[in-house]
Amino acid sequence: MSASDCSLSNSTMRYGYLTPCSSPSEQIEDPISSQKSSPTIRKIDSLQYCNKDDLVSDICQSLRISGGCIIKNLVDKGILESLEAEIRPYLNRVEKADAQREEFVPSSTRMVTGLLSKSKTYALNIAGNSIWQKVGENFLTTTMRNYWHGDKARTSTSLPQLSTTVTFSVRPGTKAQSLHRDDDIYHTYHPAAREHHNGRDTMVCLFVAGTKTRKENGATRIIPGSHLWDYSQPPPSSDDASIECAELDPGDAFMMLGGCFHGAGANTTPDEERLVYAAFSTRGYLRQEENQYLANDVEKIKELPISIQRYAGYGVSKPFMGWVDMEDPVRTMNPGATDELDDDFW
Questions:
Q1: pLDDT band at 302, cuts 50/70/90?
Q2: How many C-beta neighbours within 10 Å does residue 122 have?
Q3: Is there a domain that residue 305 lies in?
Q4: Do the domain assignments include residue 54?
């Protein structure tokens, strides 16, 4: 059962509270609203939602307050089996990560990137997951209004784009990663804030567990609320009491704003692999961390839905960013398609 289904026919559960699906406008007290001084990472069960928009709204609310959110049962077992079958051969060919990057990615961690053309299941169900896409749109959509060209005041909206695709296989003996922010690659430097406001973020991160993820095998550590700190403030020590671990069952997801301090934990188990399928989004007019055009086989990209082609950066970010011969690249890639193509660069 996926997040689009409803296992409770007449009610939906939010943060442990049951409210009628038939009355979406009914207001209930949000138990995280009173915890601004010491936020925690919330767990939300996607199967308890009748309406995807309600699920997206609650995920976004959790991200605004704590910077992170665990979503139970986001990905079905069958999809996990397909991911394993398609990506495992690539993992088996990777002996270890680059030892020159030991400080950031331990060499005992195996990584596979360029996943859009290596695994169609990943492209459609991880990078292309509809809940993840809507959450990204909430935080990373940029609209510029009333900019003038001659006597016309125009409005343009740039939608988010995929920045990075990666599968991590964290093996026994892997040391903990240093606490860091992911959005520093965009020279993001924001001041401290009492509460989150849209426009602050340049990255949203998704991690889907392929195997059981727990503290002992290296679950991601996160500092809740650190997305609101001044960017010059360093992270606490690795044994700080504020650190939480994103422990997941297979198919669960952890979403996080790129401004949160976090880091992979140490895998201290004798024989457990921590397998994670990850995707990262950024604003449509910023450079992608992973070069999607060289990392992927373009013929494989052409086999994907045009919406995912656009999300991968093969479409124009309005206004006018990324054209080829003054055409939207997806038109060049899909000469026979008409319904999903847009000639308006504004």
A1: very high
A2: 24
A3: no
A4: yes
